[in-house]
């Protein structure tokens, strides 16, 4: 049994650049895309940080109610938005893939937002939605549900090898 994998579109966000075209232009123009920060101690890390341009997230567009959208990890929000962008970049309308055998495979790790929320009083303000909003295992399932894709779904934990 043979399987075919096709990756035909890209959705992306880079430090200081809203998409892959902006990123390419910024690199060619030698634009410096990271900034010095006081976020980390200089004796531990090089104190630079990159930030992705902020965008409005329309949770209702993705079938996510406002309380859950406000409790969702920003990394997951970027993934939802960039997944839609990748489908469009492939030259497809999302409705043409509904019901298809399209799979979703995601990889993510622990991030600062999760740590910040879990160790603060803010957890009570989210009325239980924070568990679903921070659950990385839900990411490929939410995308599959939104797009009505019937292929395999998998969430893997990213490992950094040095």
TrEMBL record:
It comes from the Eukaryota. Transmembrane segments: none annotated. InterPro entries: Ketoacyl_synth_N, Polyketide_Synthase, Thiolase-like. Residues 3-151 form the Beta-ketoacyl synthase-like N-terminal domain. This is Fatty acid synthase-like. The keyword Transferase applies. Keywords: Transferase. GO terms for molecular function: acyltransferase activity. The keyword Transferase applies.
């Amino acid at each position: 049994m043979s399987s075919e994998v096709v990756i035909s579109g890209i959705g992306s966000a880079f430090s200081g650049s809203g998409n892959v075209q902006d990123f390419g232009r910024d690199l060619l123009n030698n634009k410096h895309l990271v900034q010095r920060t006081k976020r980390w101690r200089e004796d531990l890390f090089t104190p630079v940080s990159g930030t992705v341009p902020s965008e409005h997230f329309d949770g209702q567009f993705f079938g996510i109610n406002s309380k859950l959208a406000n409790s969702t990890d920003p990394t997951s929000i970027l993934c939802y938005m960039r997944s839609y962008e990748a489908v469009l970049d492939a030259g497809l309308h999302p409705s043409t893939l509904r019901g298809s055998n399209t799979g979703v495979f995601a990889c993510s790790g622990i991030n600062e937002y999760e740590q910040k929320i879990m160790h603060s009083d803010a957890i009570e303000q989210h009325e239980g939605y924070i568990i679903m909003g921070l659950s990385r295992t839900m990411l490929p399932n939410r995308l599959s549900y939104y797009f009505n894709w019937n292929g395999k779904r998998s969430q893997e934990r990213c490992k950094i090898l040095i």
